[in-house]
Write a structure and sequence with these properties.
There is one protein chain. A six-stranded parallel sheet has the order 5-4-6-7-9-8, sandwiched between helices. A six-stranded parallel sheet has the order 14-13-12-15-16-17, sandwiched between helices. It has a six-stranded parallel sheet with strand order 19-18-20-21-23-22, with helices on both faces. The chain folds into three domains: 205 residues, 3-Layer(aba) Sandwich (Rossmann fold), CATH 3.40.50; 162 residues, 3-Layer(aba) Sandwich (Rossmann fold), CATH 3.40.50.1220; 185 residues, 3-Layer(aba) Sandwich (Rossmann fold), CATH 3.40.50. The longest helix is centred in the middle third of the chain and has 22 residues. By secondary structure, the chain is α/β, with parallel strands linked by helices. β18, α17 and β19 form a beta-alpha-beta unit. The chain contains 24 helices and 23 strands. The mean pLDDT is 96. Helices cover 37% and strands 18% of the residues.
Length: 615
């Protein structure tokens, strides 16, 4: 057997460099590169190995480990999980900084390969700098934090272990059902140890994303249920986009006359102006989608986790006879809440189900109701996003101004706070993958880092990042990275001087304004942050605008600019769109000295009567 002597780190990087995938019929490298922040746990081993392959496996330097992992996750999401990236860090805080990002990838079913440095396998110099010591378990290191937020975890304590660990890691990363973060903790002394690896281990390999077909019995049961339905509704989740099933969804909805509502992850599955697209569903849903969902007797949930924001905390579906069909590649999701499971790839599953239904269509009256609801919703949406002369515009009014200057191919990126709700409800996505939202983990700080990852994946598109002042302050360092790498972003900062979304929730549950807006937090001097000056200090072009009227020209200047540009506008922290939406179950204290809290508790108890859990 032919062998090649390499260090463990050299073998790992060489293996990654020869993995391939197929996109639109052409072969490409599976890994778009490796994000790296070096420290004493990886600079000698992984650093030297990456240097040798810097032309074929590019290494990118970031400023924050969590941010670089978020950028890697956004890269994979923007490419529908067809390509991915790896991230390497030192041991200690460098590694644990990525744990939050791992949770983001885990919740959203997105592939990222995490390669944190680890302690010495030999234990000779223990305890080394940054080493976590357990008094009861000598095998524990800081990297054990990754176990609950990884789909697959391994600690490489001998160089030969790569022969089993890497193929298994890649099988998870490329599996549509098991997909998620993989962590290989790399003991720092083992990174530098040599081993005689079989030459065949480094033969190029192409990974084809499988499309599981539906089971005949499950398919028949789903078809029977759909044929019996008088008021069916499709919920399109992120799995529709990951499966690249937009056309199949449109064909299915049109062939069988079934309206479609979209989750946060599934928004853009159909063009916003498709006649059967009711828009967003759930807590942040449109009036049209939620009205139809409340009456539906059958919900075909395609590629969705059916999280609480989608189901209105399971109080949205009020038809006592309603049934759910769970069309999902992951059995865990397909069978939720006593659904009829239809375990299959979204595209192949829709095609097979459509063939079985033949010419069957939902009643014409049901489609008529859907169109009437859409017509009723349109004025509400227009009113929320229209121009305003208010001294402080609402988030929705800012989004409307941004929308009016956007092109259909522009990609909007957002994550946490109040913006995702307004975007889900009001943003008009013209094409698939132009609405990029991280709302599975709702991770503050994702926005700019995520925008960087999207731009890395879609260099030909204009990427517009919408971020609140709270998220901006939490993580903004990758503005400097975007400038350094020439990956231009347009960043719109909406400054409401605090955590306006949670302030509204606090007040809605009877609480007093406390510790959310800066003015309501403990302070000696109320901070006034000059976000435009800060962005300029990181190398971006920037400006602050004083009104909505000034926003459009500023965005035009940002579009014309050749580097990352930041536009800041002050907004009203109290204003949000009243139309649409649905109740969300938030626990409210049973006992309080505040009558507002007691009233909110009673309102919650009344709303819980509509929750329908299980069958």
């Amino acid at each position: 057997m032919s062998t090649i002597r390499l260090t463990m780190a050299q073998a790992l990087t060489r293996y990654l460099a020869v993995q391939h995938t197929v996109i639109d019929g052409r072969e490409e490298r599976l890994f778009g590169g490796v994000w790296a922040i070096f420290g004493h746990g990886n600079v000698a081993g992984m650093g030297e190995a990456l240097y040798q392959l810097r032309e074929t496996l590019p290494t990118l330097r970031a400023h924050n480990e969590q941010a670089m992992a978020l950028a890697a996750i956004a890269y994979a999401k923007a490419l529908n999980r067809r390509r991915m990236m790896a991230c390497t860090t030192s041991i200690g805080p460098g590694a644990t900084n990525m744990v939050t990002a791992a949770a983001v990838a885990h919740v959203n079913r997105l592939p990222v390969l995490l390669l944190p440095g680890d302690v010495f396998a030999s234990r000779a110099p223990d305890p080394v700098l940054q080493q976590i010591e357990s008094f009861s378990d000598a095998t524990v290191s800081a990297n054990d934090c990754f176990r609950p937020v990884s789909r697959f975890f391994d600690r490489i304590t001998r160089p030969g272990q790569l022969l089993a660990a890497l193929p298994h890691a890649l099988s998870v990363l490329t599996d549509p059902a098991a997909c998620g973060p993989v962590t290989l903790a790399l003991c720092q002394d083992v990174q530098a140890e040599a081993f005689d690896y079989p030459s065949s281990f480094f033969a190029p390999r192409t990974w084809h994303i499988r499309r599981p077909q539906a089971d005949a019995h499950e398919l028949h049961a789903a078809a029977v249920a759909l044929e019996a339905a008088k008021a069916p509704l499709i919920i399109a989740g992120g799995g529709v986009l990951y499966s690249e099933a937009g056309e199949a969804l449109a064909h299915f909805a049109e062939a069988h006359a079934i309206p479609v509502a979209e989750t946060q992850a599934g928004k853009g599955s159909l063009p916003h102006d498709h006649t059967l697209n009711l828009g967003a569903i759930g807590v942040t849903g449109t009036g049209a989608a939620n009205s139809m969902a409340g009456r539906a007797d059958l919900i075909l949930a395609v590629g969705t986790r059916l999280a609480d924001f989608t189901t209105g905390s399971w109080a949205l579906f009020r038809n006592p006879h309603r049934r759910i069909i769970g069309l999902n590649v992951q059995p865990f999701d397909a069978g939720k809440h006593a659904a009829l499971p239809l375990v299959a790839d979204a595209r192949s599953g829709l095609a097979a189900l459509s063939a079985l239904l033949g010419a069957h269509k939902a009643p014409l009256s049901w489609i008529g109701d859907a169109r009437a609801e859409l017509a009723a919703w349109a004025p509400d949406a227009a009113a929320a996003t229209g121009p305003s002369n208010a001294p402080l515009p609402s988030d929705a009014q800012v989004l409307g101004a941004v929308q009016r200057v956007c092109r259909p191919s522009d990609i909007v990126v957002c994550a946490a706070g109040g913006l995702p709700g307004e975007l889900h409800k009001l943003w008009q996505a013209a094409q698939p993958n132009t609405y990029h939202m991280e709302y599975g983990f709702s991770c503050m700080g994702y926005e700019i880092a995520g925008g960087l990852g999207v731009k890395l994946a879609r260099r030909d598109r204009e990427v517009i990042v919408l971020v609140g002042d709270g998220s901006y302050l939490m993580m903004n360092s990758e503005l400097a990275t975007s400038v350094m790498l020439g990956l231009k972003l347009i960043v719109v900062v909406l400054d409401n001087r605090g955590f306006g979304c949670i302030d509204r929730l606090q007040r809605a549950t009877g609480g007093a304004g406390f510790n959310n807006l800066l003015a309501d937090a403990s302070h000696v001097t109320l901070p006034v942050v000059d976000f435009a000056a800060h962005a300029a200090s990181l190398g971006a072009a920037s400006e602050h605008v004083g009104s909505l009227a000034e926003l459009a020209p500023a965005l035009a200047r940002a579009r014309d600019c050749t580097k990352t540009s930041v536009v800041v506008i002050d907004t009203d922290p109290r204003a949000s769109t009243r139309a649409g939406g649905h109740w969300w179950d938030v626990a409210v204290p049973e006992v309080s000295a505040r009558p507002e809290v007691l009233a909110a508790h009673q309102a919650r108890e009344a709303a819980r009567a509509h929750q329908r859990l299980g069958a």
